[in-house]
Amino acid sequence: MKALFFSIGTRGDMEPFLAIAEVLYERGWDIHCVFPEQFRAVVEQLGYQFTGFTPKFLEMLESKEGRMMMGGSGKFFEKTKALFTMIRHGISSQKEILKVNHDVISHEKADKVFFHFKCLYCTIWGMANPNKVIAVSPIPCINHPVEHMSTITLRENRDKGKFRNLWSYKLVNIIRAMVIRNMVRKYKKHYSNTSFSISNIKHHMLNVEKTFYTISP
What we know:
This protein is an alpha/beta fold and 217 residues long. The protein is 52% helix and 14% strand. The protein is built from 8 helices and 6 strands.
């Protein structure tokens, strides 16, 4: 049995995947991790196969602009400038990340694929390969609505009221589905038998795609 693990972000985004990998490895599974290049040494020391994403994405998160956006600090105009800087660099990085996702997942004959929500290509592959993909999230407010928590704000006070909280998920899921649909165009020939309408993608994310929230009671 072989498991692929796709994750992007800081060390906190990698550790839940490594914890799952350790359990499967002890049960005899082959493990292949696809993380930012900065984590190659950590993964290979554990004895797992490794493929590196471009280091640019993590470098962007650790930049002045990235820390400002993730930490919620800075004045309005500073944060706006930082946001556009991150978007500009992020588009370039995502193209490289998308290609690595496609190449690895197409080449490896995986029995299960575990992925971080930033690795959008895995949802595309999961729609064409039912029951083989599991999303992994260290926070509860991603796709599935949480009444007391918004999915948009990064500040500590995430409760914006039940109505605004629930609508934040609808908005983000529509945007996410639109991005995924646009991504499919480049690889459409590989998925000719799968319908990637926005409604189908949203249905898949909310009702078909299994999601493992790594949250302690």
